[in-house]
Structures are given as C-alpha cells and as structure tokens.
Write a structure and sequence with these properties.
473 residues, alpha/beta, Lyase, Ornithine Decarboxylase, Chain A, domain 1, TIM Barrel, 9-stranded mixed sheet, 8-stranded parallel barrel, 12 helices, 28% helix
Amino acid sequence: MSAGAPGAAPGHGLHAGPGPLGLPWSTGAVRGEDGAVRVAGVDLRALADEHGTPAYVLDEADSRDRARTLRAALTEAFGAIGAGVDVYYAGKAFLSVAVARWAHEEGLRVDTATGGELAVALRAGVPGEHLGLHGNNKSDSEIERALDAGVGRIIVDSLGEIDRLAAAVRARGTDAPSAPVMVRVTTGVHAGGHEYISTAHEDQKFGLSIAVPAGAGGVSPAMTALERVHAAPELRLLGIHSHIGSQILDPAGFAVAARTVLGLRAELAARTGHLVPEVDLGGGFGIAYLPGDVPLDHQRIATDLASAVDAACAALGTPVPRLSFEPGRTIVGPSALTVYTVGTVKPVALDDGRVRTYVSVDGGMSDNLRPALYGAAYHATLVSRTGSPDTMLARVVGKHCESGDIVVHEVQLPVDTAPGDLLAVAATGAYGRSMASNYNHVPRPPVVAVREGGTRVLIRRETEDDVLALDLG
C-alpha cells in the first residue's frame, strides 16, 4: 500500500465497507454489500446507464433537510433575543427552477446576483417580495426587471448605482412605489477559503468601505451611501448588508462583522434619526470537502451570532434589528456529487521516488472549475464496485487540453482502478454546474435529482447540437 500524501484521504478503506459514506458525502450516499454506491436509494451504475456520465447527482431530501434545519436553527437562536430572521438561499451556488422552488417550499427566500438568476427564481414561482438582487455592476435592464418584479430588496453596491436606481424609479411616474434598498458595506473583516472568495477586505470590487479615507471629513463611503439612500424619496432604506467571504469554518469573523455593522447602524441613527430595521450578515458557511473536515455547525453559528448581536445592541443602546442571512454552499454543496467514467490510467514517476497515477475521467475543469481556479480540494471514491484494499496515490484529471485540468489533486484510490469504472467526487453541488463551461466544446452535464429510489432530470445534458446552435457560421 502506498503512503498517504498531504491533503489526500487517509485511505480507500474509509469507504470500502458497506454502509453510509459519511462526510463529505450527502446523507443519502450508502455503499452496498456489492461495493456499489446508492444515493437516496438510486444505484449510481443504473443512473450512469440511463443518463450517461459525467452527471451531477443531487440528493433532494438531503438538500431540503439542510435548508430546513439551518432556517430552524437561526429562527430559534434569534427568536430567543427577540429578533426575526429571513434566510435567503444564495442562488449563485446552484440555481435551477426546481431548486428555487425547493428553497421556497422550505421557507427560504432566494438571493439572486444577475438578471438571469432573477429570471429562474421568477419562473419557479418565488414571489417577488421574497427575492433579493445583488450585483456590483447591475445593468439598466436588470434594475428594470427587479422593479417590475417587485423584488423585496435591491442591494446597492456603489454611489453611482444609488443615483441610477432613484432615476429608474422616477421614470416610472409619481405613483411608482419606492424601491426597497440595502447598502452593501465592507467591514474590513478577512475571512474565507481563498483570496478570491474573501469579500470584505478593502481592495476588491464589492461594497462600500466603512473605513474613513484621508480628507473625507470623517465620513466613510458606506455612511455617505446610507445617507444618500435615506434622503432619496424614490428609495426606502431597509438596512445594511455585509458579506465577509465564503467557505468560512471559524465563526469568529461573523461576530466581528456583526458588531461593526451594528455600530454603523447606530452611527447612522445618531446622524439622521433613522434606525434601519434590518441587518444582513451574508453567508459563506463552510462545508466538508475531505474526510476529516469539520463543517461549520449550524446550531453553533446561530447561537454564537445571536449572542454577539444581542450583546452589541445592548452596548450600543439600540434595539435588535431583523436579521437576514444568505447561505448557498452549505445547503446545496454537500447534497450533490459528480459521477464520472474512468478512461486512461497512467502511472507517473515523481522526483521524490513516489509514483502518482493519473486517473483520467470523462469530464474535468468544464464541469468543476474550482480546483483549477482556486486549488480547491475534493475527495473521490470508486462507486461501481468493491475495489482492492490496496491503494495507490492518484490524481484525478479531466479530458481537457490543459495541464491544470485537475479534478482531485491527491487521493488514495484502489490499485485496480481501471477504465470503465465509475468514480464519484463529493460535495460538488455548489459552483460545479454554476461555473461550468463548454471549454473545448464539451457539452455540460445534466443535473439529476434523486429521491426515494427515483430520478428526475432538473437540467438536461447539453448536446453538440446545442453548442453548435450558437455558431452562426
């Protein structure tokens, strides 16, 4: 048996025996006595035969349960301090008509980041007042669509956007309702799994800084924006929005951000007499991607944050606001896996004397960009049969014309892994399909929901005809 490697699973033996796969897989993933894996009672071999590979497989009951339990934890914790809570599913993680409908049915609202995501949520039947629209560079048409739909909140991201939004409302006439607005601020809290997904530091594109720049007369860009929205008759200032990052595993950053935003809220009230009724603390709750990872516990984050908000408001002498949150990854990420068919298996000698076996699959960076973009770590296992108890150091790679086309950087796989085997990668529900592309003109995989032994295609597989239909010759 080959030695393990940094970041690799401790060994194939973790999942070799029958029973639930455990973290980082969905709760419905179980290995049978025959070595094959079933998700929500669906044999992945049969699913691959019917729908082909690669395919995203989404455990509906698991995703619904995660939405329901997170909402319950937040509602209970903040209810104990007299605060109401709204939970918005962050559609950027993965959005389809069915998933938006699931979120709505489980009592969540839906957060959208573009006009396209807004269109999906509206087609799903989510009421406009239960939708939010984000975006650092909203187009005029996106603003118009949001106003047409009566979205419950538009999160403004710059001073210029405030003026454009007010003008769009004015153009609708004197009878037009005011637009509900939150102002996104950057708190200076650095959190998240990678520089590109840490979104509250100063040097990045999102939000308006709470820090006061030199020569600004003691007023921050965030305060300037809040006062401008408050003064605009076309706009209705709902509150302050903060999002500190993504894939956060330590809740301390949320508490610091909450205290900072609540302080800004109190300062605004002192300056204008208006105490905004709502504060949004974003999302970014981390999940397990590898065996041994510890995801952010929903009950813990709810209790810790409620305590921090209660204490901060008491110290400031202000009532507790209504809170809102925008989880995405933590709801859909662990609920899905991607199943592939193994093709080429190629051992490569390394400079340190080890051998790494490159296991090529029939997908790659076109269906999961995160390992190439962020160096994100994932875990894989054989799902079509019982493999050898002896393992090899493997790297799972795709079929694209890039040396960086890596799906799993290091994992222990059975030494007898061979062409035709089915391999699954865990926790691909968030940002897999959302960031998928047609690189090398490869059609994107389907999203297949599984529940109680049945399958349902949520998004069909693209075909070469679909790709060629865009090419006008």
